[in-house]
Design a protein that fits this description.
With 177 residues, the protein is of the alpha+beta class. Helix content is 15%, strand content 49%.
Length: 177
């Protein structure tokens, strides 16, 4: 490595080692993340899944991204919808998150909580730490997932900051002091 006018020059090996999927997942389990329930409403009904792969892209226009596995049971519903809501789980909503994270029937998932709607008609979780009601503006396939870029059209958030985080393959309650 050599420094040239405040820029570091790193040599990159053309035969870089391949990181296994299992090792990558193990390392990612050390990355604390918020837990969200992503929902949509289609002519066929409501659909939703638990997601930890959600992040902000930009605030002008307000845009976030959601990663959705092609193998997910809800993939077809989200592929046919142009709207979704990212519901950030509050500290006390672990049972709702669990319902949306497994092989629970869709009607049972939505029966686990109370819902309302903002502007897109996507289900908004009552008591969520925050809810981002969005229009999907771009889809980008990457490996086993689609990255959905979502423009936020409406939002709501709880006055008492609290959330549910996922770290070390366990849920953790976060409450602002």
């Amino acid at each position: 490595m050599k420094a040239t006018s405040n820029v570091l020059d790193f040599a990159v090996s053309p035969a870089a080692p391949v990181v296994s999927g299992a090792s990558y997942r193990d390392a990612m389990s050390r990355l604390p993340t918020a837990v969200s329930i992503v929902t949509t409403r289609t002519p066929a009904g409501m659909a939703g899944f638990t997601a930890s792969a959600v992040c902000s892209v930009t605030d002008v226009p307000p845009t976030l991204l959601v990663c959705l596995n092609h193998a997910a049971s809800v993939y077809t519903a989200f592929a046919s919808s142009d709207v979704l809501c990212v519901n950030v789980a509050s500290a006390g909503q672990q049972s709702v998150v669990a319902a949306f994270g497994g092989r629970t029937a869709m009607d049972d998932r939505f029966a686990a909580a109370q819902w309302h709607a903002l502007c897109t008609g996507s289900p908004v979780l009552l008591g969520a730490a925050a809810a981002f009601d969005c229009r999907i503006v771009k889809r980008l396939p990457v490996g086993t997932h689609d990255v959905l870029f979502c423009e936020v059209l409406a939002l709501s958030f709880d006055a008492e900051p609290q959330a549910l985080a996922y770290f070390g393959r366990k849920f953790h309650r976060l409450v602002a002091a």
